[in-house]
Amino acid sequence: MLMIGTNNVGRGESPEDTVLGIKAVLAELKQRLPNTKVVLCSILPRAGAIMDPIGKVNAQLPAIADGKQVIHVDLTSDFQNADGSLKESLFGGDKVHLNCEGYRVWFEKVEPLVAGALGETPLPPSTSK
Questions:
Q1: pLDDT(119) > 60
Q2: Angle at 29 between CA 44 and CA 70, to 5 degrees
């Protein structure tokens, strides 16, 4: 599982440089662990004026993934309202880090992909919310 890039754009790094960094990390993983599958998560939405660069990075992530060794999962719609605003009920007070409910949403989205990458059967969906 690779969640990467939020600190880069949060510190003002350009979307292009952030994507280059993500590609470099994936290349290193492939070189060191050639048989490892990676679930590459989109950058989660967050409060502040950095949603535009996050969107620009996220738009490029599907092209980085090959669907075999690198599997992309877009989490944007799970953590952002239709109008582009943050689903604040899923975040802690800093509106960057997830709260318990946010982690539940994240887990339910990524667990089937991680299980598939491991060749395991996904867990049944949670019935408690």
A1: yes
A2: 55
* Residue 24: CA count within 13 A, CB half-sphere: 7
Helix/strand/coil percent split, the chain, to 5: 50, 10, 40
pLDDT band at 129 (very low <50, low <70, confident <90, very high): low
The domain total for the chain is 1
Q: What CATH number is attached to the domain comprising 102?
A: 3.40.50.1110
Token pair for residue 81? 């309202």
- Amino acid at site 86: L
Nearest to 2 by CA among 71, 102, 66: 71
Structural domain contains residue 126 = no
In angstroms, the CA 23 to CA 115 distance is: 23
**Contact between residue 96 and residue 64 where contact means Cβ atoms under 8 Å apart:** no
Residues in the chain: 129
The upper half-sphere exposure of residue 115, i.e. CA atoms within 13 Å in the direction of its Cβ, equals: 12
